[in-house]
Structure formats: C-alpha cells, structure tokens
Specification:
This protein is of the alpha+beta class. The protein folds into 2 domains: about 5-135, Alpha-Beta Plaits; about 160-245, Alpha-Beta Plaits (2-Layer Sandwich). It has helices at about 55-75, 100-110, 130-135, 140-155, 175-185, 220-235; strands at about 5-10, 15-20, 35-45, 80-85, 90-95, 120-125, 165-175, 190-195, 205-215, 235-245. The strands form 2 sheets. Strands 1-2-4-5-3-6 form a 6-stranded antiparallel β-sheet, sandwiched between helices. It has a 4-stranded antiparallel β-sheet with strand order 8-9-7-10. A hairpin with an 8-residue loop joins strand 8 and strand 9. Helix 1 (about 55-75) crosses helix 2 (about 100-110) and helix 5 (about 175-185) crosses helix 6. The radius of gyration is 22 Å and the shape is elongated. InterPro entries: DUF695, RraB-like_sf, RraB_dom.
C-alpha cells in the first residue's frame, strides 16, 4: 500500500511548527503490533528566525531522515509516522514493535553525522496518543490541508489565485433552527444562499449551499473557511468544504 503523507503548520509549545504525518496509518488505529513510540530529536546547526530548516542544511537533514528510515527497516523495528520541525529542532517519530533495539537504530544512524547533536528515546504508547494528539490534525487543520490541495490544483491549471470570484461553500446542521440562525449570521457577512438541502432519510443534517466573492489564495481562503467553521459550530453544524471556477489572467 502506498503511503499518504500530509503537511501543515500549527503552534507547538508556543513556537511555529511544520508537521508532516503519515495519514495512511490513521485508518487502522490503534495498531496493537506497534505499541511503543520512539523519537529522534535533531538539533539544527543553523535555523531560520522562525526555527525552521535553512535551505543550505535541507539536504543534510533529508540525508539523516533517509538514513534513519533505512536503519529502521534494517532492524525491522517499526514504522515512520511523522516529523515536526520547530524551535531549531527536527523531531522524527516512529512507532515500534519493541523499543529495545531503538538505541541501536539511532546509533547506526547518527554515527555517520558527528557534526550534529541529538536526543533520542522511547516509551510505551499502546493508544497511539503521540500520533493522535501531536501529529494528527484537528478538523480545522484538516480543512487547511484540503484548502491548500485545492489551491495547488488551481495553480497547476494556470489559475490566478489572487483574482476574486464566486466561491461556493457547504455546511450541514443537526436542526433546522441551527441552519436558519447560521444563514442569518453569514448573510451579515456578505454571503448569499444558493440552496437549502432537506434532511435525508438516513442522515438528519439540514444542509445549505452559499457563496461570496473572495480570492482563493492560500491564506486568504484559510481565513474565510476558519471563520465559517466557527460560525457553523456555534449553531451545531459542520462545514463541508468549498469549490470555485478556474480563472486565468
């Protein structure tokens, strides 16, 4: 099975962080065969002011990452599930069958990179709490990931993301009253309702489709969707994404 990795940003311990995680493993959690979590915390020799990897060091960090994965496969200890870059450090996270060979994996990896300082360790984590709470995104973070995928597809097709156009959104609510109050709220923000969706026989949500003129540029659409999510949740609803037409300059 091909692995699916996603990337996003969030604050970690008060610092900005980039998070990469193996999304493929989420469908089969907890994994009883991998009950230990192991980590390697690598201190960057140079970092950006935000604490991220500088371009001149990126190739070396990737080489360390690849070497660690190779040694983990050689020792057959477990699975690579995520990476966090924050505060001038890179944290590599694995889930392990057993952790007694994890120090050997680290030693075999870092023995070739003596210019770096690092820490490593492992502990029991049968519920995969590190993956669930630290690596896996919240609903809001998932929406930002999906936003950026859509922006990437538009950009690849030649779209000028800075041009305002109608962006259509969807939201669903457990009660008719919640949907009506949500519609009242978004109407004050310039959104226009296109259609209501009646409840389905199997699923009770009351849906609404609405639009506004906005630019689908990465961080602009992030701000819009995060605000809609907050409004929907205030009325016991759930945001269901957006779509728009291709606009070339």
């Amino acid at each position: 099975m091909q692995e699916i990795w996603e990337n996003y940003m969030k604050p970690v311990d008060g610092n900005p962080a980039t998070v990469a995680f193996n999304a493929e493993v989420a469908d089969a959690l907890p994994n009883d065969a991998l009950g230990y979590v192991g980590f390697l915390k690598l201190r960057l020799n140079t970092a950006t002011p935000e604490g991220f990897v500088v371009e001149s060091e990126a190739d070396m960090v990737k080489e360390i990452e690849d070497r660690l994965e190779m040694e983990a496969l050689r020792y057959r200890v477990g699975k690579y599930v995520g990476r966090i870059v924050t505060g001038g450090e890179v944290h590599f996270v694995y889930y392990l069958k057993f952790d007694f060979e994890w120090p050997d994996v680290i030693a075999a990896t870092m023995g070739a990179f003596t210019d770096y300082t690092y820490e490593s360790g492992s502990r029991l984590d049968t519920e995969w709490e590190v993956y669930r709470k630290l690596l896996f995104p919240t609903d809001r973070e998932w929406q930002l990931i999906q936003n950026h995928h859509t922006c990437d597809r538009l950009k690849a097709a030649g779209d000028n993301l800075r041009i305002r156009r109608a962006i259509e959104h969807r939201a669903f609510f457990s009660k008719h009253e919640g949907r009506e109050r949500f519609v009242e709220r978004i109407s004050t923000e310039g959104f226009k309702v296109q259609a209501d969706a009646p409840p389905e026989e199997v699923s009770p949500p009351f849906g609404v489709q609405f639009y506004r003129m906005d630019a689908p540029y990465y961080y602009d659409i992030d701000a819009v969707t995060l605000q809609i999510i907050a409004w929907a949740e205030a009325f016991e609803g759930q945001y269901d994404g957006w779509e728009t037409s291709l606009v070339k300059q």
